[in-house]
Each structure stands twice: as structure tokens, then as C-alpha cells.
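[Automated response] Your request has been received and processed.

Submitted sequence:
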Amino acid sequence: MLKWSVTGWSCAYPDPSLPTLANGKIWVGNSGNAATEVTMSGDVAIDNAGVSSLSTTGVTAGTYSKVVVDAKGRVTASASLSAADINTALTYTPVNKAGDTMVGALAMGGNDLTNAGNITMAANKYLGLSANSTNGTVAGQMWYDAGTIKYYDGSTTKSLGVAGAGITNLNGLTAGTQSFVTGSAGADFNISSAGSNHTFNIPTASGTNRGALSSADWTTFNAKQSSTLADAKVWVVTQATRATAVSISGDARFANTGVVTLATRSDGRNLSESHTRCKRPRHQWSQLSKLYFSSLPGRPHCHDGSTWAGTSGKFFRNGSVCYLGDASIANIGF
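Generated structure:
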């Protein structure tokens, strides 16, 4: 209670007539406006030192990720979060990095997917390559470029063929890379396939081999007698047994039509008249005028009754023109 003095109001000692208050009780005014001694109860308790304490809710002290509270904000129950709680909060199911099964498409947004293991595709699915006109720079990269599948092998960009459309077996060889080489084995042209090589054997032509003409044989053949003969010339065998083109002179003239004209004697008679005047038997004249024949290797073909001309007035059987005019010759030399 308050007490007045010359110094002012001050608190006086309690009136000895104030009623006592039991331990842990508090004065609370009742409906009649009289102080009434009560014990604090309900959600809060108080002791005689004035320390209040909340009532327990059945939840023990600890850390909880999931709780239930009442209307007063008190925790009344607790539990650990479940996967369903997280999925509900996220509105989707996260991918488990330890392994999971997708139920929808996963878009990487142009980001890399690195350090992957084996990739096994489901049936009736497609592997779509990037449409790219820029060549790769890392070995093993593969892409699609305007109708062609390409890959980089570490040094060169290569184009892949369509499986099943290329040649898979060539003359019994199935190697991915095969080569054609040349050889000369055998007696006739042949192809030998072994390993990854196809050898085209072309032997050198000989008396027993059918094959390519050697350089030495070509030189020999090229040096053979030509078939070209100048106007009114005849082939004459020289001492080197080679035919040489010469003009007939002396007692006869030879035209390019095969006409032989005997020379005129100093007395005006020709050789045919001299033969008549000699009155020699025909067989003797035939012996005198008999033409001797010899073979000429490499000479051109000559028709029956034609002649080749040789040295010393001798003629070779089967020549290139026929005798006409003042002389004639048979295919036996007469």
C-alpha cells in the first residue's frame, strides 16, 4: 500500500491484515470482482518463483523434418519425410542417380552428355545424328551432313557407305580394304586373290606363254621388213640377206603395173627377136631364162604368178607384181 510523507509517496509494508497466498497460487479476480486464489493450469503452469512452463504435447525433444501443429502453434506430432512427401512438394518424381527408369522424354537443352557407358536402344527406335555441315575435330565423332553420314578418324573426315548396298565379297575376299596389284605368274592371263590383294598376272609372251609382248620382242618385230615399196621398185636381197628396194635396169624395164619391157639391142632388135633368130629349142631357152627362187623372211604376201626380184637377175617366187608385156612367168619359174 502507498504511504504519504513530506518526501512524497512511498510503498509501505504490507498490511498485516492481507490474507496469505498458498504456494504456487495466484490471485485472480472472480466474477464478483474479488481476488480469488487459484492454481495456474491448462497450457501454462507457474511456480512460487514466478517461473512459468508450457505443458507437454507428447512430442519428445529432437529434430524433425515433418511435424504436426495445433491451432496454438504447438507441435503435436512428428515424422520423417517420405519420397511421396518430396514428390508431392515438387509435383514430379526426381531421377535417382543410382539408377532409375524414365517415364517421359528427357531434353538436355543442347548440353553435353559425357562419360556414358554402353547405350542400348529399345526395339523400333531410331538413333538421330546431329545435322552438321562442319567437320568434327575429335576422333570418333559422327554426324549427318546433307544425306551422308560422316565420322572423324583422328586425321581425316570419312563418309560411311550404306550397309548392305556395298560390295561385301570380291572374288572370295571379304577384307574391308582390298588392293589390285600386277604380276607375271602363269602361262596365260589370270587373277589370283589372296588376303586382301587381287593380283592380275600377265606373263611375258613366248613360244609357250600367251601374254604381253616384251620390249625386246617388240624391237625385233619392229625391225622386220616393211611392206612399203616405192613406185616401180622391186625387192632385191643384199649380201646381208636383207631385202632392198631397187629399180630394174639393164636388159629389162619393170613398170608398177607389172609390165616388163626388154631393152633394144644396138642393131635395133630386141631380146625376143634374138631368141627367135637363135632358133634354140624351147627347152634350152627356158633353161636360159629360168628364174631361180629363194625365200625371203618377213616379205609381204605375194599372189600366184607374181614375183620378187633378187640379185644377178634372179627372181623370187611369189612376188608382188605379175609379169606382162614382152615376158611372163609361171609360178614354177618358167
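Summary generated for your ticket: The first strand starts at residue 2 and ends at 5. Confidence is low (pLDDT under 50) at residues 273-324, 329-334.
If you did not submit this request, please reply to this message.
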